[in-house]
Amino acid sequence: MLKIPDASTPCKWYKSKNARRPKGHLTTLLRSMTTKHLSHIPTNLITGFLGVGKTTAILNLLEQKPNNENWAVLVNEFGKIGLDGVFYSATGIAVKEIVGGCLCCAVNVPFQVSINNLLKEATPDRLLIEPSGLGHPKQVLEMLSSDLFKEVLDLKASICLVDPRKLTDPRYAQHQTFRDQIALSDVLIANKTDMADHNAIELFHQWGKKASPPKERIAQTTQGQLDASWLNLPRNPQRQTSFTHTNKSTFLHPTENDPNTLTNHADGYQSFGQQFPAQHCFDFEQLQTQLSQLNAERIKGLLNTNQGWFIVNGSDGQINYLRCSASSIQSIEVILREDLALNISTTLNACRTESQ
Fold it and tell me: How far is Cα 134 from Cα 316, in angstroms, rounded to an integer?
């Protein structure tokens, strides 16, 4: 059973009043970190499209962490629910979250403040950054390599995970963010190869081999099993994107009837997030049935059911339910294509039960 950290834990960050502080304040704080020997911290971007297995891959990397090192994770969520932080916090790793949009659209004061606070609190020997599956890495890489962070961070190889099956689907293969995550990566990894056929894996290697400059490493794996030595490979700043990325600001919008329900729209996708009091209870079997029928790109949740508390984690039509300890609040996030019109709140309410 996974033990869920208390919701009040200081390692979670959503919005801070410090985000309004001027840039000069941030520069002073970053300079002060270098005087405290927080300098040239190896930093890696772990990218990949929705549901490719980034969180699983990072958890695998954390298992390979040297015992004498302290690592930290900065994670971005497209929607309101920051469930990835629950997984990372359960490992004892310091984690901060930026929710409600793609990280590339947040590379301003909130992004800078979150890195600054995480480095101060965790004093890590390595920083791993996981953008949203819809996050474009260009602005993030530019910010991390800017003068503001040049004395604090040592930007290493960017690792991109790809589901080879998506390469044959124009909805993904022609998506700007999908293509540019691959283009800007130094290490390109085919994940979920146990679910892909020979033609899909061969197509993946064709995509990788045509990259210019050449990739530092091209490999294939299952279950997000990565080699931690790849983190020390160099970054090539000469890599170029296929498209000109426009910085689209995204906003979380409360619904009219329920302030605990928020939606988000960007890049052809929509997210629905909702929080419930801990005492609300869902019928486990009904929940399984209803969620399996949503045709969602991504489902994440922390829910109380009549069979106990579960972390819900789903993509590609497969939904896993992991038993966990009780939490002070429960929540769910569903990411779907923007052209799907579903009343998810009604669906969830239909699964409610009075007893546990």
Answer: 16
Dump pLDDT digits (tens) for 86-111.
Answer: 666 666 778 887 765 544 444 566 77
Mean pLDDT estimate for the chain: 81
Q: Cis omega before residue 213 (within 30°)?
A: yes
Distance CA 187, CA 179 (A): 14
The residue among 199, 232, 265 that closes a domain is 232
Q: Which residue has the tokens 């985000």?
A: 19
Tell me the pTM.
0.77
pLDDT digits (tens, 9 = 90+) for 152-198: 999 999 999 999 999 999 988 988 889 999 999 999 999 999 999 99
The domain in which residue 170 lies consists of: 17-232
**Which of 172, 167, 217, 165 lies closest to 193 in space, CA to CA?**
165
**How far apart, in whole angstroms, are the C-alpha atoms of residue 299 and residue 309?**
16
Mode of pairing for the β-strands spanning 41-48 and 159-162 = parallel
227 and 257: one domain?
no
- Number of domains, the chain: 2
